[in-house]
Write a structure and sequence with these properties.
The protein is an all-alpha fold and about 325 residues long. The chain has 14 helices and no strands. The protein is elongated, with a radius of gyration of 25 Å.
Length: about 325
């Protein structure tokens, strides 16, 4: 019976063995003699072996309720077997790899506390402390995959992946500090990568969307961690930090002036938030922290305005009333 219905964890180990064999076969295939013949044989058997192991993984998953760790390992390992076998085109294999990552994201999104981690009979389960780590970890894995695919060249897989990253970041917003860290990494990566015209070719603005939305998503993940005055100061700090970008640093030649618009829109919203904090009575609070948040936030915005990309007349016109306030 144990042989007829193998455990999901056992199948995950088998998929890793198939992947290791395929990688070894790819390394040996170009050699002469016995190693070359063994390498070619391993690559020839990779796809049929992957299909057989995939069917066993589905059977084991249905029986055991799709344990999280074996599911993730099996899906990603089988996609990598397809990619490294060399028996399909690189563009098709990349698309399958991206779809496998999306399947993993969906599985992690559906994971609840108490879900089996290794098998239905194993005592290890997904605890409440692990849940906030799952989607941010998947987002970081997606960034690693995107870095590989963007450098490699064209293909539908890279387009699907780049547009999926901000969506996964949005889904990860409730996950606290783990989400803030992963989304901040997405913001830095997309800001850096969108500068290269060769990299963004054919992405349809996906990197622009990721770069512009990620800082706001990181800020949206913070309200459960920080209070209102702290959120205000973080937002003002983001506007000040984006000032060099608004002035043209890391601007893509011939690309949209993303950061000037981002700087102006987020700066205006932050200014309105300082006014709302004033109306809420932060300046008259008994504690020093809320009372200091509004003037410090205004000073940060003034610094961004003075050093920003606006013409001098607009800078003076905006800084003067702000300074008096």
């Amino acid at each position: 019976e144990d042989v007829a219905v193998p455990a999901a964890a056992q199948i995950a180990v088998v998929t890793l063995a198939v992947l290791a064999t395929t990688l070894l076969g790819r390394a040996w295939a170009a050699r002469s003699g016995l190693q070359g013949r063994l390498g070619q044989g391993a690559l020839t058997a990779a796809l049929p072996g992957g299909v057989v192991v995939g069917v066993l993984a589905v059977v084991a998953g249905l029986v055991e309720g799709w344990p999280v760790l074996p599911f993730v390992v099996a899906v990603l390992a089988l996609a990598l077997v397809l990619r490294t076998s060399g028996r399909v085109t690189a563009a098709s294999a990349d698309l399958v790899l991206v779809l496998a990552w999306l399947v993993v994201v969906l599985r992690l999104l559906a994971t609840e506390a108490g879900a089996p981690l290794l098998s239905a009979e194993h005592v290890a389960v997904v605890g409440p402390a692990v849940l906030p780590l799952l989607l941010p970890a998947a987002l970081v894995l997606g960034l690693v995959l995107a870095e590989r695919l963007l450098v490699r060249g064209d293909g539908l897989g890279r387009v699907v992946l780049v547009w999926s990253l901000p969506v996964v970041a949005l889904l990860a917003v409730p996950d606290g500090w783990w989400a803030v860290g992963a989304i901040a990494l997405l913001a830095a990566w997309a800001t850096w990568r969108r500068v290269d015209p060769a990299v963004v070719r054919g992405l349809g603005g996906g990197l622009d969307v990721a770069a512009g939305a990620a800082p706001l998503l990181a800020l949206a993940a913070a309200p459960d961690l920080l209070d209102g005055p702290a959120i205000l100061l973080v937002a003002a700090g983001l506007v000040l930090a984006a000032t060099p970008l608004a002035r043209g640093w890391l601007r893509r030649p011939g690309g949209p002036d993303l950061w000037s618009w981002w700087w102006g829109a987020v700066g205006l919203l932050t200014l309105l938030a300082t006014a709302a904090g004033t109306v809420e009575g932060w300046l008259t609070e008994g504690e020093w922290w809320p009372r200091a948040a509004v003037p410090v936030g205004v000073l940060l915005l003034l610094g961004a305005l003075v050093t920003g990309p606006l013409p001098r007349v607009w800078t003076v016109g905006g800084a003067t009333p702000g300074g008096w306030w």
